[in-house]
Design goal:
This protein is an all-alpha fold and about 80 residues long. It contains 4 helices and no strands.
Length: about 80
């Protein structure tokens, strides 16, 4: 019985690993995301607008694309 459950678990792990996206696709998605984010940040910060307006737009960009609470939980860990 134990051998059968071990083989079943192993088979499920192998099957689920084959469904994962290849690393090159994941890296390409990350590169596209960062390039788009960089272009939007440069656009927001390089406009000849008042400082308050640029700060407001940058804050909107930051809150839309970054998970601040999630990053904080990751960094702090169990503390």
């Amino acid at each position: 019985m134990t051998r059968r459950s071990l083989l079943t678990t192993l088979l499920l792990l192998i099957a689920s690993a084959s469904l994962a996206a290849p690393p090159s696709v994941i890296a390409a998605d990350a590169n596209v995301f960062m390039n788009e984010l960089w272009n939007r940040a440069v656009e927001v910060l390089s406009k000849k607008a008042p400082l308050e307006e640029r700060l407001t737009r940058f804050r909107q960009l930051f809150h839309a694309d970054f998970d601040g609470p999630g990053i904080a939980r990751f960094v702090l860990g169990r503390y």
